[in-house]
Specification:
The protein is built from two helices and 33 strands. The protein has about 500 residues and is mainly β. Helix 1 runs antiparallel to helix 2.
């Protein structure tokens, strides 16, 4: 028989070896995918682990449905932004050339449930859904609040001379960014408003006027790692025939300026997206650029098309763009990995022999389908000044998304999985020790001489047969040599 203490030592040694192997496999120090060195009080990025890149051949995009909406024939109708709830998407934009419109549609097939429009309100440029309410912004910096059945609940009128271009929600506050004209008419400036969502009052505002020319903020978002706001736009946009310059103002959540990031020779910038490491992806006219969380440029690529919208999900950057193909401006969805390598491309407006494009504003992703809205010229109407909304639902087929490792480091999910396996192994080992010791104790208590036996169940232990003297083992009812019934308290 194995000694209890010997068994314990063997289990401890085996458990320790298994844990070492699992820790080595998990590469736990790399769990965040990033290494940093502290140098003069600053964090300097040293190595980046890129993983979760899926096989290009297995990344399959499929257009579920496409909807054209043209409520007013002969006028410009353009969709800007898409927001979503459990079963519906909400599309906000321009109706009848200049006015506000929002449509509620089913996710299932895109069918129209309800719409809302007003000729007293200029167009909607962006939207968000927070706590079962739809918030919309647009010209004049007015904010309208609807329930999810498009009943107007509140109208916060500001009547500023400018456009609120981007709205986000973070930590119980709404942040609205955009630009406004100054009195001379040749100068515009950045503006950000921080709203308390419960009271729907302004908590604080921030303005920035970097040049005496046209300075336009186009989008704002929160870096998920640094918890800082990135206000993105252009400075000196075309004044005195000079080229525009990309301007990123990094603010804390209370709208205090932290730093400014610039990039020359940028014609327009429309979109920003962050990944889980805090990297920022910016897109605009014929470029896409990646920054680290500190604002250092990592990758920049020149393109032959213009990116209007960006969204990051599951290791990919999705870019809604317009591109000239076969003499027409086409709506195209590009897919990049985190190194900005193109991994897929879907021509969305291939069936249209007309120009089609996007505007600023959000795409919406519900974990399965991507919803995008733009506009195209009405192919049923011969006038050049008629456009209609175009709305897409695009699925990423789950079964086709197979993860392949393309770097030396594991993902944080993989590391955690190995850690959990190690903990489970150790737990099972120690439970085994406990059961073994418990059984040994029970066995020792149940092993008596024949003269001390008082219950039939005590005979079913390790003892000698009272008839022939042959050993009877635990669980034996009859002697294995003479067939004596060991449960009878007699020797016959």
């Amino acid at each position: 028989m194995i000694n209890i203490h010997t068994f314990q030592r063997r289990i401890i040694i085996i458990t320790f070896v298994i844990m070492l192997l699992l820790i080595h496999e998990a590469n736990i120090p790399n769990i965040n995918g990033l290494f940093y060195n502290i140098n003069s009080g600053q964090l300097t990025k040293q190595t980046e682990i890129i993983n979760n890149v899926r096989d290009i051949q297995n990344l399959t995009l499929k257009i579920n449905w496409k909807i054209h909406s043209n409520p007013i024939i002969g006028w410009f109708d353009e969709a800007f932004s898409v927001c979503g709830s459990l079963d519906h998407v909400y599309v906000a934009g321009i109706n009848n050339g200049a006015y506000a419109r929002v449509e509620k549609r089913l996710k299932l097939d895109g069918s129209l449930v309800k719409d809302w429009f007003s000729m007293a309100i200029y167009f909607f440029s962006d939207c968000i859904i927070v706590k079962d309410k739809l918030y919309t912004i647009g010209w004049g910096w007015n904010m309208l609040v609807f329930d999810l059945n498009l009943n107007l609940l509140k109208f916060k009128r500001r009547s500023l001379d400018g456009l609120a271009t981007s709205i986000i929600f973070y930590n119980n506050y709404i942040y609205i960014a955009g630009w406004e004209n100054l009195e001379d008419g040749n100068d515009t400036r950045f503006r950000v408003a921080k709203w308390k969502i419960e009271e729907l009052i302004i908590a604080k505002e921030y303005v920035s006027n970097p040049t005496s020319g046209i300075d336009v903020a186009t989008v704002i978002d929160v870096n998920p790692i640094s918890k800082q706001l990135w206000l993105v736009g252009l400075e000196n946009n075309g004044i005195n025939n000079s080229l525009s310059k990309l301007r990123i103002e990094v603010l804390d959540l209370d709208l205090n300026l932290i730093k400014v990031i610039g990039k020359d020779n940028i014609t327009s910038v429309h979109a920003i997206a962050f990944d889980e490491y805090g990297h920022a992806y910016l897109g605009g006219y014929r470029f896409i650029t990646k920054y680290d969380m500190y604002g250092n440029e990592l990758i920049s690529k020149e393109l032959s098309y213009e990116i209007w919208k960006l969204l990051y999900a599951n290791g990919y950057v999705y870019a809604a763009a317009d591109e000239v193909i076969d003499k027409y401006l086409r709506q195209v969805l590009y897919v990049f990995d985190r190194n900005l390598n193109q991994v897929d491309r879907v021509l969305l407006s291939e069936d249209l022999s007309v120009n089609a494009s996007f505007r600023e504003g959000k795409m919406f992703f519900d974990g399965k389908n991507l919803y995008i809205a733009g506009y195209n010229y009405n192919y049923k109407y011969t006038e050049d000044n008629d456009t209609e909304w175009t709305i897409y639902s695009i699925s990423l087929i789950p079964g086709a998304m197979i993860q392949t490792l393309v770097s030396t480091g594991p993902s944080s999910t993989d590391s955690l999985m190995w850690i959990f396996i190690g903990i489970a192994t150790a737990t099972i080992s120690w439970i085994s020790i406990f059961i073994f010791i418990r059984r040994k104790k029970i066995s020792s208590r149940l092993t008596y001489s024949s003269s001390n036996v008082t219950s039939p169940t005590l005979y079913i232990t390790t003892r000698l047969c009272p008839r022939c003297g042959n050993p009877a083992y635990l669980g034996d009812i009859f002697c294995r040599k003479c067939g004596k019934n060991l449960t009878l308290n007699k020797s016959g």
